[in-house]
Specification:
Blueprint: H1 2-16, E1 25-31, H2 38-51, E2 56-62, H3 65-73, E3 81-82, H4 86-94, H5 117-124, E4 137-149, E5 174-177, H6 180-191, H7 193-198, H8 203-208, H9 212-223, E6 229-233, H10 237-242, E7 248-252, H11 253-265, E8 271-273, E9 279-287, H12 295-305, H13 308-318, E10 321-322, H14 327-333, E11 341-342, H15 345-348, E12 355-356, H16 365-368, E13 371-373, H17 381-393, H18 398-420
Parallel strand pairs: 1-2, 1-3, 5-6, 5-7, 9-13
Antiparallel strand pairs: 4-7, 4-8, 4-9, 4-10, 11-12
Helix pairs in contact: 6-9, 9-17, 13-14
Length: about 425
Amino acid sequence: MKRVLLTLFAATLLLCGCSQDRAHILKVYNWADYIDEDLIGEFEEWYEEQTGEKVEIIYQTFDINETMLSKIELGHEDYDVVCPSDYIIERMLLKDLLLPIDKDFGSTPNYLGNLSPYSIECFDNIEGHGRNANDYAVPYMWGSTGLIYNPKFVSDEEASTWEALRNPKFAGKILMKDAFRDIYTTLLVALNKDEIASGSKDLKTITFDASDESIALVEDYLYSFKDAIAGWEADFGKEQMTKERAWINFSWSGDAQWAIDESAEMGVELRYSVPEEGSTVWYDGWVIPKYAKNVKAARYFINFMCKPENAVRNMDVIGYVSAIGGEQILEAMADSEEWEPLDASYFFGPEATSVCLNPVMYPDKSVIERCGVLHDNGDRTEALLKMWSRVKGDSASVWTYVVIGAIVVLLIVAVVVRLTSKKHGKHSKKRRR
C-alpha cells in the first residue's frame, strides 16, 4: 500500500508539473506481483549512494505483454525500464524499440556478471534481427512448460509423456493454458522428438517453425483430445488443481510451484513433470525502450536487480526463478534434506553437476537439453491464432460448463464469506504470461 500511495503521489506531481526534473524520475513498467516491493525504496537509497543523485520511482504494472508493447510502440510512452517476455523482446528488436544497455557502471560493481551461463545462452538464441539480444536485454526470470498433476489419480509414468493428455482415463479432468504460442511450440517440439533424436531436424530450428504443415500437425494433435479438456484457463488452473477438481494442468513451472506449495497446506499432493518428448523454456528480461528519459537510472536499476541477495529476495516473494546464477544463489537454493541430487551445471557451472535443488525450479540438465526457447512468430502469428480459434471454438464440452458453473458458485460463496468474515486469507501471487 505504501508503494502504491507513493506511486500515485509521484504521478500526480508529474501531471501537475511541479515534480522533480524528469532526470530524477525512474518509470518502471513490470508484471503485476513480480518483484519484492521493498526493493523499490531500497534502490532509491542505493542509487543515491552510488551516484550522489536522487531518483524517485514511478512503478506501474501490466498483465499482458501486448498491452505493454502497444503503449510503447503506439503511444510512445516514456517508460525507462520494462520487463517483456522473450518473444516480445524479439518483436521490440525488430521494430527498433530498444536502446543498447551500457554495462559500464564506473566504480559501482557490475552485477550483470552474475547472470547464469544458461540465461546468456538463451538470450543469444533470441532472434535479434542482426543484433545480439544480450546487448539490449538482461534476463530476469525464467521457467519451463510442463504438466502439473495429482499423483493420486495420475502416476509418475503417465505424467512423463504428453500422451497423458490423450489418455481417456483423464477425460474431463484436464485443464489447458489459454496460451497459443506456448502450447503450439511445446507440442511441435514433442511431435518432432524422433526427428530431433535422429539428427534429421534441429531443436532450435523447430522452435521457429510456423509453417502450414507444422500448424496442421499440432492442430490435429490438439483435436485428438480436445473433447477431454475441461477448460482453457489463463490463471485459475492451478487453484482448480489444489482443490482436486482437475488432475492434469498444462502449465508453467512457476504456477506449478505455487500450486504444489498451496496444495500442501490443504493436504493435497501435486507434482510437476516436463514430459520426456521435449518441451520449452521461457524468459522475461529487463529492457530500456527507445523513448526512455532516464537511461542512467534505468541501467542502475537493472544492475541492482542482478545483485544475488536481491535475486533471492525476489524469488522468495514471487515464486519464480531468477536468471542469476553463481555460488551465492546455489547456496541459498540448495537443500540436501529435501531434494535429490541433480545436474544443474548448465545453470551454475561445472561445480554443480550433482547438487540438491528443487527440480521444478531447476530441472536436471537432461531435461533442459530437450527444451527449446519460445520465439515470436512474426507474420505467421495470425495463422497460429486462427488455428487456436478453430481448436477452442467447438471444444466447450459439458465438462467446460461444469467447471464454469463451479467457478461461478465459488465466486458467490467467496463474496459472501468475505462480507461476513473478519479474517483475511493469505495473499497469493499471480502472474499471467
